[in-house]
Amino acid sequence: MTEQKDPIVLSCIDGSRYSGAVCDYAAWIAHRTGAPIKLLHNIERASTPAVADLSGSIGLGSQEELLEELTLLEQQRSKLQLEQGRLMLDEARTRAENAGAGRVVTCQRHGSLAESLIELEDHIRVLVLGIRGEEHGESNRGLGAQLESVVRALHKPILVVNREFKAPQAIMLAYDGSEAARKALDMVATSPVFKGINCHLVHVGDRADAVLAEGVEALQQAGLTVTSANLEGKTVEALIAYQQEHSIDLTVMGAFSHSRLRDLLLGSITAKMLLATNQPLLLLR
């Protein structure tokens, strides 16, 4: 019989400016849930191979010699990536342990990040990653190249970190009664992560009374302190304004819709929130 592993807080570590905050938020979740942390450094496949087909470009002898040199360089590059990753993981593990995480393990994998996460999905309690990867440098614009594919691929809660760590004192749950929103409501009501934290349940648009009443009842029965509000105006602008007015530290909401065509034509509320907010977003599908 296969031994059942404890669900993990999986944290994606790279050379980006957000890796430290990713460690801190992961440690905060781990401390409140008792879950172990796994720190993942994923090495992407090179988009263009270092060893190219040079036939016909140069003489045969020179070509073989150059190919040997390129092969050696590719091997050296791979070793350097592994070593750099190990150093980052060691630093991240120390940071997470100093922040109060009990059990911390590290791992390195090759391939696309989405593929790696899908393989680990059954053991994930929550995924924590930065809004942009190291390829974005110090830029504050846009989303990470793989963020959308990761959100679409995984059916686990995903915390997207976009700022330095601050222990949440107030959260906002954007609730519209949809399947994803109900999943988020249930998670907030049952998870030890949110015990003792003020919860703001908000709805944007019409027919709010019944939807909000349903959500408030579930959260109050779970022992949470709840403030509800029906917001008017455009969804993203209304949510951001409420965040700022009420000093919200973390927002919980359902992620991308199932219709990719709709998202491409109209733009996803989730993507717009990710681009507009300066507070971490916990997404569920």
Question: Please, could you describe this protein's structure?
Answer:
There is one protein chain. It contains nine helices and ten strands. The chain starts with 7 loop residues before the first strand and ends with a strand. It folds into two domains: about 10-45 and about 80-160, Rossmann fold, CATH 3.40.50.620; about 165-285, HUPs (Rossmann fold). Mean pLDDT is about 85; it is low at about 45-55 and about 260-265. The longest helix has about 40 residues, at about 60-100. The chain has about 280 residues and is an alpha/beta fold. Helices cover about 40% and strands about 20% of the residues. Strands 3-2-1-4-5-10-9-6-7-8 form a ten-stranded mixed β-sheet, with helices on both faces.
Topology:
Blueprint: E1 8-12, H1 19-33, E2 37-43, H2 60-98, E3 104-110, H3 113-120, E4 124-130, H4 147-153, E5 158-161, E6 170-174, H5 179-190, E7 198-204, H6 208-221, E8 226-231, H7 235-245, E9 250-254, H8 260-266, H9 269-276, E10 281-284
Parallel strand pairs: 1-2, 1-4, 2-3, 4-5, 6-7, 6-9, 7-8, 9-10
Antiparallel strand pairs: 5-10
Could you give a quick summary of the protein structure above?
The chain has 285 residues and is an alpha/beta fold.
What are the main properties of this structure?
alpha/beta, 42% helix, 10 strands, Rossmann fold, single chain, ten-stranded mixed beta sheet, 9 helices, elongated, 285 residues
